[in-house]
Design brief:
Strand order of the largest sheet: 1-8-5-4-2-3
Largest sheet: 6 strands, parallel
Low-confidence stretches: none
Structural class: alpha/beta
Mean pLDDT: 93
Strand content: 5-15%
Order of helices and strands: EHEHEHEHEEEEHHHHHHHHHH
Amino acid sequence: MQSHSMELPRLIEIGEKNIADFGRFLNSLNRPKKISLVSGTNVQKVLRKKIEKSLKSNKIQFVWHTSKDNQIDSLNQIQKNVKKDDSSLIVGVGGGRSVDTAKMISYNLGKPFVSMPTAASHDGMASPFVSVKSEKPHSIVASAPMGVFVDIDVIKKAPSRLLSSGCGDLIANIIAVKDWQLGYKKKKEYYGRYAADLAMMSAKIVMENSSGFAEKGLDARVIVEGLISAGVASCIAGSSRPCSGAEHLFSHALDQIAPGVGLHGEKCGIGAIMMAKLHGLDWKKIVKTLKDVGAPTTAKQIGLKPDVIVEALIIAQELRPERYTILKEIKMTEKRATNLAKSTKVI
């Protein structure tokens, strides 16, 4: 049996209007004397004073670093600056970019990392994986967070589109798990039922509650807990398998040919519709759920042209040839890709 490691968060705190407790939370983890905070400019404008007040009252020194993009050069520059801090802990405060940047730097410098998400747009807040922008956009393994601290009030104040995107990323787990099972069946790849079931449960909770979400609005806490659970599922699996399949390859392909268009979870949700059809699943139910949570179901809704969708379907599997997905079962020609996208009304 092939072995794998499980690196899990030590402590997760979810509250509402609890940002004043952040310093206490850090002290309960490892009593850091000095920390490096990585965040975007907008997040700093809104939260910096509150975070600093909490840190000062808990006698924690701090240095701020601004994350502007996920390019390797930017990450390397921030890493050089963080190294000079000589801090004992690195904190990512913000959306996916800032959390990913802090996660990667903590891994490279061998220092513990804490995730403080300000938006629930994807499951990276609790996972050990980082999305890197390069010639071939992809995810790489870094460090799982030592701790995750969430103020639901902050999440609620983020644009609703981000929360809808988080739902898309969770629904994508349905495809990821199916692809993982396929990898086990066809290639005798390791398959962990516990991790798979945890990822599926996160998706099912969104599916089962979507009508209520459509009626009363999205429940930020339910979605945050689902995203954290999905991240933990990846920690248990020792890979991104429970949460990343053909739909993520499709999303990465779009990142390559149409960078900056659409949110990660939105593209994964649209990918999940088409991959569900290839798997013989109820893709119409996925469409309904995405509509209920306010996530896009067509290329046009996120500003993508039909030919871009077709190209992404064709090149998706090439991005990670070693990962067995439903796309390995099909010779994805231009005609087949067009028919798939049209038949599911993505284009």
